[in-house]
């Protein structure tokens, strides 16, 4: 059984439109409630950072620290939205905790909490420990740089596709990329409103990765369409060529997406809190990218070429 993407094109585009509109509504509600389209984490808003390191003797820093145990202790003391990470290096092993801006008393309480949690792993070395305050201006700079990187990646991809294929191919590939970014951002806007899920700098990394993965799938389909157009030499309707090209690359697209998504599901389930939402963003983006490459990019290209063909075939208007 072959997939007829053109016949059911309006259905596929409607599904994408409905998902994007739901995400946009969530982002608008988030902006009204939080002042930003998504719930921003401390990477972007700034906050307090406490790093405590264990004493080491000739490279021996004691047994390995279980980050999960430390995270549970920190959260049990009321610091639920903190980012807890392991810090390791030469003669260095400890824990870094980043949280919202804290008062002096709250910082002391958090420092005591971390110190107590680390007692089972060794003695904290005051000389290797530090407490920092990250201002919101630094966080905003990180956000601006991330968005700039995203815009530059879109521009680079568009220029590359315009040279490799044709401008209309590049245009619809970029539209498909916007689809993937908006779907992922929309889902996280909903998660932020319903479950207080915050985005951090890894979310920007996920977005850039999604762009690269999605456009790769689109390029494969477009490449097959271009090859079939050359081989066919105008004998077959363009819509039929698009359908044939999608079906010829369908198994590859699905297999590639599955093999990339399955490890991410494992990371989401067992990778710990730090990587959980990073992997979730990639899962959503990869699935959305496969959908947009197979359906949106190919359907929009076929519709556009069909419109151009019908316009060229119309006889010129006769003057009275």
UniProtKB/TrEMBL annotation:
InterPro entries named in the record: SecD/SecF_arch_bac, SecD/SecF_bac, SecD/SecF_CS, SecD_SecF_C, SecD_SecF_C_bact, SecF_bac
Keywords assigned: Cell membrane, Membrane, Protein transport, Translocation, Transmembrane, Transmembrane helix, Transport
Membrane topology classification: Multi-pass membrane protein
Source superkingdom: Bacteria
One example of a Gene Ontology biological process annotation: protein transport by the Sec complex
Location of the Protein export membrane protein SecD/SecF C-terminal domain: 115-305
Keyword flag Protein transport: yes
Coiled coil, from the record: none
Function: Part of the Sec protein translocase complex. Interacts with the SecYEG preprotein conducting channel. SecDF uses the proton motive force (PMF) to complete protein translocation after the ATP-dependent function of SecA.
Family: Belongs to the SecD/SecF family. SecF subfamily.
Name listed for the protein in its UniProt record: Protein-export membrane protein SecF
Species annotation: Pseudanabaena frigida
Gene expressing this chain: secF
